[in-house]
Amino acid sequence: MSMQSVAWDMMYKSSSAPSNKQLRGDRRSTLRRIMTFARPHRLRIVVFLALSVCTAVLTVVTPVLAGRVVNLISGHGSGGTIVGLAVLIAVIAVAEAAAGIGTRWLSANIGEGLILDLRRAVFDHVQRMPVAFFTRTRTGALVSRLNNDVIGAQRAFSDTLSGVVSNVVTLILTLGVMIAISWQITVLALILLPVFVIPARRLGRRMAALSREAAEYNARMSTQMTERFSAPGATLIKLFGRPEQESSEFADRADRVRDIGVRRAMLQAVFMTALTLVSALALALVYGLGGWLAVHQHLSAGAVVALALLLTRMYAPLTALANARVEIMSALVSFERVFEVLDLEPLIVDKPDAVPVPHPERGVSVRFDDVSFAYPAADKVSLASLEEVAHLDNRGGKTVLHDIDLDVPAGGMVALVGSSGAGKSTIASLATRLYDVDSGAIRLNGVDLRDLTATTVHRTVGLVTQDGHLFHDTVRANLVLAQPEASDEEIWEALRRARLDDLVASLPEGLDTVVGERGYRLSGGERQRLTIARLLLAKPSVVILDEATAHLDSTSEAAVAEALGEALAGRTSIVIAHRLSTIRAADQIAVVEDGHIVERGDHPTLLAKGGRYAQLYRTQFADDDDRVAGGDQTQCCPAGA
What is the pLDDT of residue 440? Predict the structure, then answer.
């Protein structure tokens, strides 16, 4: 590797190196964990290191042979010997090239294999994290762990490991040969090393500061583009008439990045010019002093040539090794950031003896038995670095549900009503085991959720929220998420029951039509019916509706209500309701306030009591009752469901 290429690499590593605040943690523990990921690749690593050593040896042999050729030429040696040495140099060059290709192949395999292992480990671990983790974490910061930090960790094996080994071997051999040829010239050549290394490291720190500043502005631009270029973000900007101000803010950040880019380019140009000058001075020293010694018969001409060639191969490993600590610490920080995510313990894990939901084909009852719950504090589910804050919010642990008792028999329906923030959606989250209760128990067919496998719980209990989420994928892909092996006939049947088959059939690509980010190519009612079709395809025994028609117009609501009727028919259901028609169909109504169930009963009974339900009826449901009385008979579910 040439001095210039090593210098460029050094500047890059220095500019991307972590700050001192990042360089902390138990390095010994980190190294042990790294070894667990490296163990499956140990055979390739050994071969990789052996080839790196061979390459280093071959690097030193060539200048020595070149010096012998020069001596033979100047001493009128045998032509056959000269040709033989030239052939040997050529063979060594071919061997060095082959070893280089071999080390690159092994490096790529080890590095990419490590990336695969780390990404799979992080991805699988993140999937097991609770919903609270995702509500707090910035998606971009989490994705960065899977991309930038994993790749940074991979460099420890593909670049740093081989670089340190080969550079140490090259340096030892080169210095040994140079000292054997002329220790005086070797010492003088080493004197120039600080002239090169010290400015390079100082410049690297300046480059690092500029790089961090540029990264910050680039991140802000990326955040602005991500938020403003999404469908709801673009709509919001247009509605409030802020395109010019947004453009101005973006331009200011882009201008700053441009200015930083110019400064970095000039620093690099100055550095490379100085490097070329130092390299030329070092070679001038070798040729000047070596030539003088050769003229006075103290050194051969071939030795001068060998020293000059060896010098060019000595500065590269010296420079790289001078920067090795930065490279190693950068790699360790990347590993630590990956392990930081892996060290977050999932709050919900299956017990070793967990069992499936018993006899779901006979119907499933749901029982809340004296349930209390508090959302977990931030330090239990998140990281400050993933939230991009200096310190985690230490609030949390406040009980939001108190002593909830609720019994939903198989095939029965319970409606939950109450003020916003009373705890209704929290009850729905607990029933689907998105969180575990703090005290009490939730039972399916008499078995505690915590004693059941999470997979069968999620197959048994289906949830439809007021904001049904769709991926930027095809209609088919969004549906088969519920049942990957579903046939086209089953998909179309689910769409028919969700009152969406005609619409999908009219789309340009039918089931293969892409619905857009979060399904924004569809109307609100169409998105909601598509999520209901997905639920129908999953065929859960228990259905929970969390205000599934809350934000729809009357026409869309009527279509969704029909689809919900199909979803609830014959199933155990818990409905968080905001429409009187839904409540009237329920076997029991539970009124939730401040995390307590304050009233329960059917509609006439609760209305006659004149309590909290009667107040809610007068403020929220009276208009709905008038519409029903006037002829609007929209039902969320069939009578008696």
Answer: 93
Q: Which two tokens stand for residue 67?
A: 């010096």
| Residue 332 in tokens | 């360790």
Q: Which of 254, 260, 262, 307 is nearest to 285 (CA)?
A: 307
Q: Look up residue 287 and give its amino acid.
A: Y
Q: Where in the chain is the domain with CATH 1.20.1560.10?
A: 3-342
pLDDT > 80? residue 241: no
Residue 640: per-residue pLDDT = 34
Residues 521, 231 contacting (CB under 8 angstroms): no
DSSP 517: G
Residue 580 in 3-state DSSP? helix
Tokens matching residue 410: 């198989």
Query: What is the model's pLDDT at position 369?
Result: 93
Cα Rg, the chain, nearest whole Å? 35
607, exposed or middle or buried, with CB in 10 Å at 0-12, 13-18, 19+? middle
Residue 91: the pLDDT is 92
Quick check: 333 pLDDT over 60?
yes
Backbone angles phi, psi at 488, to 5 degrees: -60, -35
Closest CA to 338 of 27, 28, 34, 20: 34
CA separation, residue 442 to residues 413, 428, 446, 448 (Å): 17, 11, 9, 6
Domain with CATH 3.40.50.300 in the chain: 370-629
Sheet holding 439-444, edge to edge: 399-408, 366-374, 439-444, 447-448
Q: Torsions phi, psi of 636, nearest 5?
A: -75, -30
What is the rounded average pLDDT for all residues in the chain? Answer: 78
pLDDT band at 204 (very low <50, low <70, confident <90, very high): low
- Asked which of 308-312, 494-498, 558-562, 581-585 is least confident by mean pLDDT, the reply is 558-562
Residue 638: per-residue pLDDT: 38
Mean pLDDT of 302-324: 75
Residues 137, 138, 141, 142: is their CA dihedral positive or negative? positive
pLDDT band at 630 (very low <50, low <70, confident <90, very high): very low
Residue 20 has pLDDT above 80, yes or no: no
Partner residues linked to 574 by β-bridges = 414, 544
CATH superfamily of 370-629: P-loop containing nucleotide triphosphate hydrolases (3.40.50.300)
Mean pLDDT of 75-98: 85
Is the Cβ–Cβ distance between 213 and 187 less than 8 Å? no
**CATH of segment(s) 3-342:** 1.20.1560.10
∠ CA 570-573-574, nearest 5°, is 165
What's the farthest any 2 CA atoms get from each other in the chain? 122
Q: What's the pLDDT at 407?
A: 92
Question: What tokens appear for 363 in the block?
Answer: 């119907």
Residue 55 CB neighbour total at 10 angstroms: 22
CB within 8 Å of 267: residues ≥ 6 apart: 203, 206, 207, 210
